[in-house]
């Protein structure tokens, strides 16, 4: 669990950093400019890190399923090699997903206007700047980003449904305990997938709230993840309490 959490934190650091420095600079400047290469780089890292994190969250749900439903087999099923394999799979899927998005975007014919109505470059807004009908491109984007988001989200729902059903059948009153155990992960999944599904599954209708959602899931959600897991994890709270007591005793 902690190996997967460490990788999630690593992805969150990159996810909160790929566009934030440029965004802060633009807030402090009258001229908000970005090169074409920089725009493509933002799209690449957004979908690379985002896709990898989606798959990693599914791996973490599988980890919780094994821990709760098959506790005697946990050390065998979730050994070091399995965890490394799950992390590598998440990175590979994220890379393939991102490359497939950038490949058809970088070669599009672009002309004026050249303004992206957002705080950073994202696929639904950039392809609208192309000098061609983008309806088919929108369908391709839904087939890629929307399909990845929805499939991972459905796998997560299936995983937690299986956990609750299994615990409820074998332990009276255990469903609430299992829900409490998985509540941190469920909160993170909701915060991450909610904006993603709203933006990438319905990309044809644009709302001003999309800007807020984009900033929320690229900056605030990665910053909230460590806090959520820390406050909802019993071992982490015990360790922090011991550390605080040691500092108080030292002083």
From TrEMBL:
Pfam families for this protein: 7tm_4
Chief localization: membrane
Membrane-crossing segments per the record: 43-62, 83-104, 147-167, 179-202, 214-231
PROSITE patterns the UniProt entry points to: G_PROTEIN_RECEP_F1_1, G_PROTEIN_RECEP_F1_2
Bilayer topology: Multi-pass membrane protein
Top-level division of the source organism's lineage: Eukaryota
Domain G-protein coupled receptors family 1 profile, first and last residues per copy: 1-229
InterPro entries: GPCR_Rhodpsn, GPCR_Rhodpsn_7TM, Olfact_rcpt, Olfactory_Receptors
GO molecular function: G protein-coupled receptor activity; olfactory receptor activity
Keywords: Cell membrane, Disulfide bond, G-protein coupled receptor, Membrane, Olfaction, Receptor, Sensory transduction, Transducer, Transmembrane, Transmembrane helix
Cell location: Cell membrane; Membrane
GO CC terms in record: plasma membrane
Function in brief: Putative odorant or sperm cell receptor.
Family: Belongs to the G-protein coupled receptor 1 family.
Name this protein carries in UniProt: Olfactory receptor
Organism listed in the record: Camelus dromedarius
């Amino acid at each position: 669990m902690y190996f997967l959490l460490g990788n999630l934190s690593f992805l969150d650091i990159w996810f909160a950093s790929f566009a934030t420095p440029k965004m802060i600079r633009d807030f402090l400047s009258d001229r908000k400019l970005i090169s074409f290469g920089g725009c493509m780089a933002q799209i690449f890292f957004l979908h690379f890190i985002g896709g990898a994190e989606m798959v990693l969250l599914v791996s973490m749900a599988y980890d919780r399923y094994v821990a709760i439903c098959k506790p005697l087999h946990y050390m065998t099923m979730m050994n070091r090699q399995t965890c490394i394999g799950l992390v590598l799979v998440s990175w590979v899927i994220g890379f393939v997903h991102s490359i497939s998005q950038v490949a058809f975007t970088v070669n599009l014919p672009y002309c004026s206007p050249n303004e992206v109505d957002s705080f950073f470059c994202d696929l639904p807004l950039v392809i609208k700047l192309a000098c061609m009908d983008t309806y088919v491109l929108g369908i391709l984007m839904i087939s890629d980003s929307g399909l990845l988001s929805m499939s991972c989200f459905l796998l997560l729902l299936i995983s937690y449904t299986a956990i609750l059903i299994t615990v409820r059948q074998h332990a009276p009153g255990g469903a609430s305990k299992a829900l409490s155990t998985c509540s941190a992960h469920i909160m993170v999944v909701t915060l991450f997938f909610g904006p993603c599904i709203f933006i990438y599954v319905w990309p044809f209708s644009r709302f001003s709230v999309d800007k807020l959602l984009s900033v929320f899931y690229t900056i605030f959600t990665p910053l909230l993840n460590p806090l959520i897991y820390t406050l909802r994890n019993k071992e982490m709270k015990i360790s922090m309490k011991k550390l605080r007591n040691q500092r108080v005793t030292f002083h």
